[in-house]
Amino acid sequence: MNIDTSQALKTLQAMGNSFFRLLPHLVLALIVFLLFYFAAKGVRALVRRLNDRYRRHRNVGLVMGRLAQGIIILVGLLWALVIALPSFQPGQLVSLLGISSVAIGFAFRDILQNFLAGILLLLTEPFRIGDQIIVGGYEGTVEEIQTRATFIKTYDGRRVVIPNSELFTDSVLVNTAFETRRLEYDFGIGYGDDIAEAKRLMRETVDGIDSVLKTRRRKCFW
């Protein structure tokens, strides 16, 4: 059986010629995208530094920095696509997203919900990075607030990743929201022990802690 490979060779040759014609465009598109990517990271860091210097709320800097980074990367991606594919028009991508927006919304509903909840948490600041919180049976220090989830470090050195939608809809106890707070501990003593001596020892112990408020109220349960 004779097999005519001439047509296959012509097709491969045409594909190779097309690739080599597009290769300079692809290289330039990659360089442009990398420039935008690193510029976006620099802008994000600059926004955060400016916010930390002139503002009191750190979370606002996180939001503005991430939004600026996302917008710059998106512009760089569109520019790189236009360079790599001269026939590509940004309007085509917009129309495609408009057609498939319903399907994307259903497929990424949880992701979008966590993203929007993360933005609202960063803007409203019910808690900040470094605060000690209790949520869903977990207690620890807030390490990072991302647009999808919040990372907390428990007191025994473990990391808990909590979706932002849960933090936005559930109750969250912020232990460090105020400068001073009351702590309660239960101590047991034997029936034959001296209660007055136990009170004295507990007072001396509490007074020896620098972070304890020294002002005592008139009504004391000692």
How far apart are the first and last residues' alpha carbons, in Å? 105 Å
Beta-strand segment tally:
5
Largest sheet: 5 strands, antiparallel
Helical residue percent band:
55-70%
Q: Approximately how much beta-strand content do the residues carry? A: 5-15%
Q: Compute the gyration radius: what is it? A: 30 Å
**SSE order, one letter for each helix or strand:** HHHHHEEEEHEH
Strand order of the largest sheet: 4-3-2-1-5
Average of pLDDT = 78
What global shape is seen? elongated
Sequence stretches where pLDDT stays below 50 over 5 or more residues: 217-221
Characterization of the model:
The protein has 222 residues and is α+β, with helices and mostly antiparallel strands. Among the domains are: 20-99; 126-174, Roll (SH3 type barrels), CATH 2.30.30. Helix content is 58%, strand content 11%. The chain has seven helices and five strands, in the order H-H-H-H-H-E-E-E-E-H-E-H. The protein has helices at residues 6-54, 58-84, 90-99, 101-107, 109-124, 164-169, 195-207; strands at residues 132-135, 138-145, 149-154, 159-163, 173-174. A five-stranded antiparallel beta sheet has the order 4-3-2-1-5. Strand 3 and strand 4 form a beta hairpin. It is elongated. The protein starts with 5 loop residues before the first helix and ends in a 15-residue tail after the last helix. The model is unreliable at 217-221 (pLDDT under 50).
